[in-house]
Amino acid sequence: MKLAALALTLALVIAAPAATIAAESLTWTLAQPTDGPLSLDGGSLRYHAATPVALTKSAAAHASARVVYGKAYFRLTARYRTTGPLAPTVLIHRAPEIDRRPLTLLRLPPAPEWTTFTADVLGHDPTNPTLELRLAPGTTEPLRMQEGGLEPAAGATGTAEFASVTWERLARPVEELPRGSIAFTTRTVVFKTVGALELKLQLDEPARRTFPRAALVWFHGGGFVGGNPDSCRLQTSYFASRGLFCIRPQYRLVAQGGNVDATLADVADALAWLRANAADLNLDPTRLILAGTSAGAVVGAVAAVDGRDCLGFIGLAGYYDALEPGDSAFDRRAPFFGNGDPALWRRISARHRIVRPVPTLLIHGALDSTLDARQSERFAAALIAAGAPAETLLIPELNHVPNLAPPWAFARIDAFIARLLERE
Fold it and tell me: How do beta strands 288-293 and 360-365 pair?
C-alpha cells in the first residue's frame, strides 16, 4: 500500500470536526488529499493544504480526533517524516474551552525519511476520560506555551507529514503506591498568622521512627493557585508508614495574597518554626530533608540551597529556572510573578540561587507538558557544577502527575533518603 502523507503547516488555523465517538483504540490512516481542507471519515483523516509556507507564532494548524484517556496505559504509534527544522508534536488536550494547555506533549524528532515512533503514555484524568488528540507541526525550538497557547518560533519552514497514527489502550495495569506497616498519627499546628489567615503544618508522626530525630518536609503543589497540605498526603503517607517523621507545610496561594516574595517568606517561616520547636518535636534541625511536588518543588528547592541546614532535596516535577522555562506551560506574566517581573523570576529560580548545594534527587515525567523535564536536568547540572551530587530520574510514560509516579520511583526516593540518613 502506498504511504499517504498528511502535510501540516502553520499558515492557516485549521480546526478538525469532532469525531462521532471516542474509542480506546483509534487508528488514523491519513489518506491522499481530497477536496476541502480537513475532514474525518470514519477512521480516516483526510487533509489538503496549499504549498507549505513559513511558520508563524500566531497560528497553529493541527488535526485532531477524540480519544479515551483515563487512568490507564496507552500506546501511541505514528509513522511520519519531516522537512526543515520541524519536530512533529502530538498533544492530548482537555476540551479547549476547559484548558488550553495540553495534558501530554510528545515531541517527535526530525526525520527526513519515513520513521515509526512509538511511546507509552500513562493516562491520569479519569474525570475527563474523553479527550482530544492533536497532531501539530512543532519546531525544534521551545514551544513557549508558558505565554499562553502553542506558539512555535517564527522563521522555521518545512512540512510535517503523518502516514498513520494509532492510539490503543494497553493491558498493563497501573500500580498503586503501597503503604508501609508502621502506624502514624497526624496533627495540625499553626506556625504563622497573616491577618485572619492561619498557616498550618500537618505533622505525620510514626508510632516508631526508623530515622530517629530526622524529618521529611514536603511542600505541596497546585501552581500557587490551588492545593493544600493534604495534596501531598499520598507521598508523606508512604514515608510515614515506613517510619519517617513527615511534615506538610501550608503557604499562601495567590487568592490569599501569595506571590514570589510572600510565599517564599512563608516557606522560610515554616522551617524557622520547626527549628525553634525542634526539642518539643524530638527533631534534630540539622536532619531535615526538603521535598516538593510541582510548585512545592519550586519553593522547596529555593529553601534547600539557600545556605541553611538541610541534608538534601527531593523534587517531583518542579521547575527551577523561570528565566529559561523551555516548553513549560506556566504563565510568567501572572500576578504571582508580579505580572512579568524578571527580578521575581530570578528569585523563584533555585538554579540561580545556589548558596549551599545539597545532595538532590529530581524526578520528572518525560512527557510533562506543564513543566519541561529539562528543568530538572539543568538544575541537576548546576548542582553538580557547584559540587553537590545530583540525580535525575525521567519516567518515560509520565506527564505532570507526580502522584502517579510508579512504586519503583518511590523506592528510588527511599534509597536516596537512606543514603542521607544513617539508620539508628
Answer: unpaired
